[in-house]
Amino acid sequence: MSAKRTSKQTSRSVRRVLVTRATEQAPDLTQALHKLGFEPVVVPTIEIVAPPSFAALDQAIAELDHVDYLILTSVNSVTAFFDRLTALGLDVNALAKLQTVAVGPKSAEAITARGVKADLVPEDYRAEGVVALLKEQVSGKRLLYPKAALARDLITAELTAVGAEVIAPVAYASAVPADAAENLRMALVDGLDLLTFTASSTVQNFVDLLSAENLRLAKQIPVASIGPLTSATAEKLGFTVVIEPDNATLDDMVEAIEKYASGTE
């Protein structure tokens, strides 16, 4: 696993690492950083919330008998979908006749924890990978894609273009935690050696939460990004991305951070 940027092979002073993931998702990253001797500073810049209405998702679940593929592109979508399935009085038997697609290993693990096997996982753990995996086999098929409110339109547009019927109800939304601005200001005052971002929304919210002066200071801190889309957002907003793992997974990002800090990337 390599860092996105290469530089002189010397160790770097990385101790305090900012974690911007949602509260319920932060422990995996913080525990991994702790084990490597870093000091995680947890300031979620995003929280997962229910959508304004579950009507579209509920309707889609009611019609599962007519669905050929279920596409779940994050642990959040797994949680939202299965929680709603249960709320409607259904269980995993309702998925017996369809193919379940997980965007990557973490989503696949979350699906397995719900008692269902992920039938398909792309090599590229992004929406682009899902499209590449499915585009040759979904013409004339009905796909259920429970998505985030701010999700890109890529899966819907690309798979519709090859003849699939894509049902894409909003399963969850996001918001900025009420105390995030003050907590972030305090973290910057105390000092940070590395910022971590695992989604474009965490970067954008981070920027929106800071005053102009604090943002100027924050942009001097190197960034570890989970993948190319998040990196593109961070760089567009003026940050310097020094770490981007070859595969867009949390484990690979942690490994890349370790190698960056030791100067062995």
Architecture overview:
Helices cover 40% and strands 16% of the residues. The protein is an alpha/beta fold and 265 residues long. It folds into two domains: 118 residues, Rossmann fold (3-Layer(aba) Sandwich), CATH 3.40.50; 126 residues, Rossmann fold, CATH 3.40.50.10090. The strands form three sheets. The protein has a five-stranded parallel β-sheet with strand order 2-1-10-11-12, sandwiched between helices. A four-stranded parallel β-sheet has the order 5-4-6-8. Strands 3-9-7 form a three-stranded mixed β-sheet, covered by helices on one side. Helix 1 links the parallel strand 1 and strand 2. The radius of gyration is 19 Å and the shape is elongated.
Brief synopsis:
The chain is built from 11 helices and 12 strands. The chain has 265 residues and is α/β, with parallel strands linked by helices.
Distance between the termini: 8 Å
Number of strands: 12
The total domain count is 2
Helix share of residues?
A: 40-55%
Q: SSE order, as H and E?
A: EHEEHEHEHHEEHEEHEHHEHEH
Overall geometry: elongated
CATH topology of the largest domain: Rossmann fold
CATH architecture of the largest domain: 3-Layer(aba) Sandwich
Spans of at least 5 consecutive residues whose pLDDT stays below 50 are: 5-10
> What structural category arises from helix and sheet content?
alpha/beta
Radius of gyration: 19 Å
The average pLDDT is 93
Main sheet attributes: strand count, strand direction, barrel closure:
5 strands, parallel
- Total of helices: 11
As a percent range, the share of strand residues is: 15-25%
CATH class of the largest domain: Alpha Beta
Numbering strands along the chain, what is their spatial order in the largest sheet? 2-1-10-11-12
